[in-house]
Amino acid sequence: MWEYTEKVMDHYRNPRNVGKLDNPDAVGIAGSLACGDQLKIYLKIENGIVTDAKFQTFGCGSAVASSSILTEMIIGKSIEEVKKITNKDIADQLGGLPPEKMHCSVMGYEALEDALKNYAPEDMVDLDELRETEVREKIVCTCFNVTENQIWEAIKLNGLKTVEEVTNYTKAGGACGKCKVLIQDIIDTYYHKEREEKKNELTPTQKILKINSIIENQISAELRKDGGDITLVDIDGNRVMVKLRGKCSGCKNSHLTLKSFVETTLKEAVDPAIEVIEV
Amino acid sequence: MEKLIYLDNNATTCVDEKVIEEMLPFFKTEYANPSSMYEFAKPAGRALKEARVKIRDLFNAANEKEIIFTSCGSESANQAIRGVLNMNKNKRHIITTKVEHPAVLNLYQALEKQGYSVDYIGVNSNGELDLEQLASSINSDTALVSVMYANNETGVIYPIEKISEIIKTKNPNTKFFVDGVQAAGKIPIDVQQLGVDLMGISGHKFHAPKGVGALYINSKTVITPLIIGGHQERGLRAGTENVPFIVGMGKAAELAIDNLKYEMTEVKRLRDKLEANILKNVFNARLNTGVANRVPNTTNIGFEYIEGELILLHLSDLGICASSGSACTSGSLEPSHVLRAMGVPFTAIHGSIRFSLSKFTTESEIDYVTASLPAIVDKLTNLSPFQTELEALRNLKK
After folding, report:
1. Cys-Cys crosslink for B43: which of A273, B12, B30, B199, Cβ 3.0 to 4.6 Å?
2. B387: nearest CA partner in chain A
C-alpha cells in the first residue's frame, strides 16, 4: 500500500473541477491508455488569465490527485504565472508523492505545457524558446514514448541523478529497460561527465603543462597557506615526482598530504592513473 | 476501518482459530527441540510427525518421507528447481510458462543469466496453456518442466496430469515441478495420479500462518539441498524445525481437506454470484478468463477505461480488500505479466481487479460488494477522458 498524504487522498476521493469545458481556449493532453495513465486538461483564458480549468484523468490515485490540484493551482492565475508551474510544485502542493509516483506530477506538468503550447495568440512566444531548452524530441523510451527532452526537463527540474530516479519521474526505462543505457548517457551529458574522456586525450606535452600548472597554481598555493610548499621535479608517464618544501618537508603527515591532497587533485583534474612520488 | 470485507485470499488468508489453538502449546509449554533426546522433547517430535502425515494427505502422497518442510512457497520452489538442476548438471534446458508466479519466473530469469536456456510457454486469451508448444519444446537436454497448478491472478487450473503424460512420452528423464501454492485448499490434490515429481505449497494460502511451506519430492527424485547444515528433514533442509508453524500448517491441511467440498460448492456459488452480478450490473466489466477451468474462489474482472489502483482505493474506503493487475499497484510500471500473456486488451488490463474468496466469505459480504461497485465505477468513468468509448460500451450493453 502506498503511503499517500491526506491531501492526495482528499483529492482522489473528492476530485475538483472534473469534466470538460465547452469551447475551451486551450486543451492539453499527456500520457496514453496503453501506458496506464492519461490526462486531459481544458482551459478557459480571458485577458491573459486562466478563468476556468477542468480535467479528465485515466490513472491511479496520485494521477487524479495531481490533475485535481493542478486545476486549483491555475484558476485565477495569469498565463505568465501558470507557465512557471513545475511538476515539483504540483507534488509539493500535495504534500509530496511516493518516489515511484512522481511521474504522475510530471504528467500534470506535461498536460499543462501541452495546453499552453496549443494556446497561441499572436503575442505568445513559443514555450520551448521561453524556457531556453534545446529541442530534443528523439524518443528514448519506446515502451512509454518518452522523449529525450522530457528526460532532460525532469533531470533539470528535479535534480535527478540516477536512472532509477528518472524512471520514477518519467516512467522511461520502467518496462523492457533497454533504454537505461541511453538514460545514463543523458544524465552524464547533463552533468558534463564527458570530461573524463577528454582528459585521456591530452598529448604528453599538454599533460606535463597541465600538471605543472595545477601544482603551481592550486596545490602550491594551498600548501603555502600552512607554511609549506611543493615543486615539480620530473614527470615520467603517469609518475609525478615532487619535492616537498618548507614546513611540509619532514612533516610526519607529509605522506598523507601527498596521497590524499596532491595525488587526488591531479587524478581528478588530469588522469586517474597518476601516481605522486616524493623525491 | 469498521467494516472489513476480505476478498484477497490469493494474497494471504487469515489464520483459522483452530489452527492458532493447535499451535499455542508449542510456543508455551512444548517448546523443546524435536531433535533432543530427553522425554520432554517427545511431544514436539511427535507433533512434527503428525503434521507431516497431514501434509502427506493434503498432497495424497504415498509416503510422508516424501514431504519436507520449508519456510514458504518461494523456498519450496527454489529448493525444487535448484535441487533438480544441481543434480542434473549436464542438462541445460528448462520449460516453464509465461504466467508463473514471480517467485518462480524471476528464478528462471536468473538461471538464464547463468547459461540455462528457458522456454516460456504461452497461453490463449482464456489463460489456457499451449500444450502443443510445450510438447514440441521438450528435448533430450530438458532437465525440468515447471508449471503452476493454478494461476494466482486468474485462478485458471492447468492440466497437470496431461502435461505429465506428455513429458513421459517425450523424455521420461525430465523432472516435473508443479507450483501448487494456489491449488492447496481450493481443489483436491493427488500427486500420484497427477504424476508429478515435485510440488510446492505455502501454509498462509490455506489459513496457516505466514512463514511455513512444504515441498513434495517423490521417492524416485533425488535433489541437492538448498540449505546445508544439520540433519533435519533427512538432510534436505537444515535448520531447527519451526515446530509451532509446522503444527499449524498440519492442522490447516487437515481442515482444508475437510473443507474441500464446501470450497467447491458454496465458495464457488458465492464466487459465481459475485461474478455474474458484476458482469450484469457494471456496463464496462469483462471476465478476463472466459470459459477456462478455474479454482472455485477466484475471479478476475477487467473494468474498461478506468484504472485499477483507483478502484482498489475506493473499495478500500468501503473496507473491501481486493487486488489489481494494474501497473500502478505493483511498484513496477508494467501491468500484470499474466494478463499481458493472455492478450487482455489495454482498455481493460489496467482496470483489472482480482477478487479471491475464502471459506469465511459470507453471502452478505458478496451482496455488499455487488451493491457498492456500480457507484464506484460511475464515479471513476466520469473522471475518464475516454467518454466516447465509454458511451459506445454503454450502448452496447443496452
Report:
1. B30
2. A56
